[in-house]
Write a structure and sequence with these properties.
The complex is a heterodimer of chains A (417) and B (165).
Chain A (H helix, E strand, L loop, with lengths): L4 H10 L8 E5 L2 E5 L3 H10 L11 E4 L9 H16 L3 E3 L6 H7 L8 E5 L12 E4 L2 H10 L1 E5 L3 E7 L8 H12 L8 E5 L1 H4 L3 H9 L8 E3 L4 H10 L17 E6 L6 E3 L7 E3 L10 E5 H4 L2 H11 L9 E5 L3 H9 L2 H8 L1 E3 L20 E4 L15 E4 L2 H10 L10
Parallel strand pairs in A: 2-3, 2-5, 3-4, 5-6, 8-9, 8-11, 9-10, 14-15, 14-17, 15-16, 17-18
Antiparallel strand pairs in A: 1-7, 12-13
Chain B lengths: L1 E8 L6 H4 L2 H4 L5 H5 L10 H4 L5 E3 L12 H8 L4 E4 L4 H10 L3 E4 L9 E5 L4 E4 L4 E6 L3 H8 L3 H8 L5
Parallel strand pairs in B: 1-2, 2-3, 3-4
Antiparallel strand pairs in B: 1-5, 4-7, 5-6, 6-7
Classes of the chains: A alpha/beta (417), B alpha/beta (165).
The complex binds iron/sulfur cluster.
Chain lengths: 417, 165
């Protein structure tokens, strides 16, 4: 019987002929923790009587969520991570290097066919590179640091086939917000999502990351894509490692196949306080906003900043809006400087913060006030997500965020292109 | 394993930001401190009301959102004896078992806040003493039962040094 991408990767890595719902113990190619989860993983490592990290060259800690540290308590946790990674010869990406999910692909740690775990729920981002990459908790990370292994239930797969061509002004962020609104926040729980079809193939690799990144927002364990020429080229440019791409068999079994024609799709906005609360931008256009955020592991890449800059060129953001930009990594930051994109953003009125998570998770860098509306390129709009449970977060594409920042209200970006 | 306590009911899609907000969890490894803020965006009084052994009872997709293990740990440290829900998000479900917090999948529609419940994990049965109803529970996968009965994944690793499932 044919296999899905998920079944193939977990079979390869466990040495078992595995199908959906089998339990396997598999070899993990790369392990990652960030500053919200690694300190607890270190505690768990100690509680497990762990002595050393297995293959430390394929394990990284990233200090990105509260970076640089805004508080004494956080500083102590960062110090713990630095000490542990040094003692164990692990890779450490310290403050300013970028968001974990940008760094792992950018630094060449992940690629087609690999099995990756990260103690962060958006680890599914690397599915765009055809990697089985999934989020785990701190104790699972500790177990994988000690043993190099992890147990998995092989997921069933739900396949999303996106036909047609996305219209001008409509991006991969709009597409994934639309798909999540269709299947809901738990529509793919425990399952692998596979995204395919001409609309996906037409996207750049950077744009594809946005879709895989948000697979978890429909409950999925991984958000997988095929490794086409674009992926192989991207991976070769970022890594010297050898990777084995894995495609699904034509006779693979799917839990469901969902087909959409996206040729008429509008820009999408997820209303507070649910990611699956997506509507065409027209339904919320005119809603006043006080803060606009461009960045995060969902949309903080060079392409995203460039799209926003195109709209902001020669314009100023609305006087009632604070516009916060967090490049996803130092490399993105530098490239945005070289291309002039950063200059355009700053001239328009952006407050640029350290590469990393920025204000996404309410640790620092722009906590909204009571009753304020925020429009953000992030992936979550839960109540209290940005550290104020009386604020309202709308999720949208970089283009919609930029257009809204200019007008001071939620705006269809097609007015500017 | 028999568990006994009162129900505290919540709705669908209780995410990890609601269980313990990011603004607290990044600051400390002191779970007792985090436990003071557990569920506060949904019910500011929860941490004060909850008695040792009480149950958090919810609808679908409990624990969706981030991978923060502080979520089950804050619940455990607040005294919560188990979480009962119609379904759980995947990472939370794993984290709960790994840290030793029992999670029970069952029909929670017949439970109201304040109901006295008894859960027998081995027999797979939940009794609502207040309503005089018995509710079947979905058994844990054997791998997870093994980890939970070893006392969580850390204890499992202390015992075997690696995965022994
Ligand atoms: S940018 Fe936001 S969603 Fe992404 S890893 Fe950081 S906190 Fe999580």
């Amino acid at each position: 019987m044919g296999k899905t991408i998920a079944e193939k990767i977990l079979s390869n890595k466990s040495g078992q002929n595995a199908y959906a719902n089998d339990i396997v113990v598999a070899d993990v190619d790369f392990r990652m923790g960030q500053d919200g989860t690694s300190p607890l993983a270190i505690r768990a490592f100690e509680a497990m009587n762990g002595e050393r990290v297995y293959h430390p060259e394929s394990a990284a800690f990233v200090i990105d969520h509260s970076a640089p540290s805004p508080l004494e308590g956080v500083s102590a946790l960062h110090a713990l991570m630095r000490q542990f990674s040094k003692e164990n010869n692990m890779i450490l990406y310290d403050i300013g290097e970028g968001v974990c999910h940008q760094l792992l692909p950018e630094k060449g740690h992940v690629g087609p066919g690999s099995l990756v775990i990260g103690a962060d729920s958006h680890t599914c981002t690397y599915g765009a590179l055809n990697a089985f990459a999934t989020g785990v908790g701190s104790t699972d990370l500790a177990a994988a640091l000690i043993s190099g292994k992890m147990w998995f239930k092989v997921p069933e797969t739900i396949k999303f086939v996106c036909h047609g061509t996305l219209p001008a002004g409509v991006y991969s962020k709009d597409l994934i917000l639309f798909l999540i609104s269709q299947v809901t926040a738990d529509g793919a729980t425990y399952m692998a999502a596979e995204y395919t079809g001409e609309a996906i193939q037409a996207l750049s690799v950077e744009a594809r990351f946005t879709i895989s990144n948000m697979a978890i927002e429909m409950g999925a364990k991984v958000g997988l894509m095929e490794a086409d020429d674009k992926v192989m080229e991207w991976v070769c440019a970022h890594s010297n490692n050898k990777f084995e791409p894995v495609n699904s068999d034509p006779d693979a079994e799917y839990a469901a196949i969902k087909e959409y024609d996206v040729s008429q799709l509008d820009p999408y906005v997820a209303k507070p306080h649910r990611v699956d609360n997506g509507v065409p931008v027209g339904e919320v256009a005119g809603t006043p906003i006080q803060q606009a955020v461009l960045g995060t592991c969902t949309n903080g890449r060079l392409e995203d900043l460039t799209i926003a800059a195109r709209i902001l060129k020669g314009r100023k953001i609305h006087p009632d809006v604070r516009f916060i930009v967090a490049p996803a990594s130092r490399q993105v930051y530098l490239k945005a400087m070289e291309t002039g994109v950063l200059k355009t953003l700053v001239e328009a009125g952006a407050a640029v913060v350290t590469p990393g998570c920025g204000p996404c998770v309410g640790t620092h860098n722009g906590v909204p006030s009571d009753g304020e509306n925020v429009i953000s390129t992030a992936n979550r709009n839960f109540k209290g997500r940005m550290a104020n449970n009386k604020a309202f977060i709308y999720l949208a594409s970089p283009a919609t965020v930029a257009a809204s920042a200019v007008k001071g209200e939620i705006t269809d970006p097609r007015e500017f292109i | 394993m028999e568990l006994r306590g009162k129900a505290h009911c919540f709705g669908d899609d209780v995410n990890t930001d609601y269980i313990i907000s990011g603004k607290y969890k990044f600051k400390t490894l002191d779970m007792k401190e985090l436990a003071k803020h557990v569920m506060e965006d949904l019910d500011p009084d929860f941490a004060r009301k909850v008695q040792p052994g009480d149950f958090v009872v919810a609808g679908r997709n409990f624990g969706c959102g981030s991978s923060r293990e502080q979520a089950p740990l804050a619940l455990l440290n607040a005294g919560v004896g188990a979480v009962l829900a119609q379904s759980f998000a995947r990472i939370f479900y794993r984290n709960a078992i790994n840290t030793g917090l029992p999670v029970v999948v069952c029909d929670t529609s017949l439970i109201e806040s304040g109901d006295e419940l008894v859960v027998d994990l081995e027999k797979g049965l939940l009794q609502n003493l207040t309503k005089g109803k018995e509710i079947p529970i979905k058994p844990l996968p054997p791998v997870m039962l093994k980890i939970l009965s070893d006392g969580g994944l850390a204890a499992h690793f202390r015992k075997y040094g690696t995965f022994h499932l």
